[in-house]
């Protein structure tokens, strides 16, 4: 059992003004201290988020970013100074936060988040804050947080506008309910291309921090099923209702599987799911030596027709009724876009008595990066 930290006298003095708040108290402050939050991206959104989470007493902060401080970004990345130019963001952020908030535990991950490392990394944290600057990372986090039932607070900014929403793990709705298909690279302007007013990521980063704190405390009403949009030029906030899409391939799929074949936690508690992953390179080598492996694409027909690596195509929602098409005596490797659906398919097959099953780690996204 994990041993929880306690508040020391200095912390009680530091946080006494927020300890007075309804719903906070010493119990709430302890929840913050014992919480572990991952910040994916230490840029314009991530730096204000990190500052406010640390100042609020969140005990463990994980910072994920592979990039270095760039002078042209200092106007909005408020943790850094001129002396940090050219140095890794994660190290500079740790230095700054440790100086001002010595009680906070700062973990740094100087890596680019991909389908190969995301699962292991975000599994270490209680809440995930998406402060990334690209759609590939944003959707990867969405898919994995739904799969792992992790709360995700996601924000994005462009020019004078920004938006934020909270995805409540497997309870949906999720980002793919709003955008079923990942926008292609170059179709939406980035901050580097279109510019950004620095106060916009500052405001959105603070909103993210507020959502994270509310989630940890289990107080208030989170931005679940609601997309909050800021137009800075009009100084207007708008809220858009985001219904759960029953056809969403991540959070709304396979009602039949969920109702007829529930994945009970006690049924899987003894299973180490990491043992069922297979990397793209491992699969490529395996296929060259043993071509009779059963590849099973569980994506939609549209995605299968666009690109696949062969094998059978059985959309996840059809799997319960088509088990007779699979040979339980041959190795089955499930695959999808980024790994979420294929792991659900794997869990279902295990529950149905299929023992020779693997899931392609990172899905087609990782396969294209390494093997295509």
From TrEMBL:
**Signal peptide location in the record?**
none
Spell out the reaction equation it catalyses. Answer: [molybdopterin-synthase sulfur-carrier protein]-C-terminal Gly-Gly + ATP + H(+) = [molybdopterin-synthase sulfur-carrier protein]-C-terminal Gly-Gly-AMP + diphosphate
- Domain Rhodanese intervals: 289-372
The pathway is:
Cofactor biosynthesis; molybdopterin biosynthesis
A GO term, aspect molecular function: ATP binding
What Enzyme Commission number(s) apply to this enzyme? Answer: 2.7.7.80
For this protein, the record's SUPFAM superfamilies field holds: Activating enzymes of the ubiquitin-like proteins (SSF69572)
Domain of life from the UniProt record: Bacteria
Keywords from UniProt, A to Z, are: ATP-binding, Nucleotide-binding, Nucleotidyltransferase, Transferase
Classification via InterPro entries: Rhodanese-like_dom (IPR001763), Rhodanese-like_dom_sf (IPR036873), ThiF/MoeB/HesA (IPR045886), ThiF_NAD_FAD-bd (IPR000594), Ubiquitin-activating_enz (IPR035985)
Which protein family is named in the record? Answer: Belongs to the HesA/MoeB/ThiF family.
Purpose of the protein: Catalyzes the adenylation by ATP of the carboxyl group of the C-terminal glycine of sulfur carrier protein MoaD.
Query: Quaternary form?
Result: Homodimer. Forms a stable heterotetrameric complex of 2 MoeB and 2 MoaD during adenylation of MoaD.
Q: What is this protein called?
A: Molybdopterin-synthase adenylyltransferase
Record the organism. Answer: Aquicella siphonis
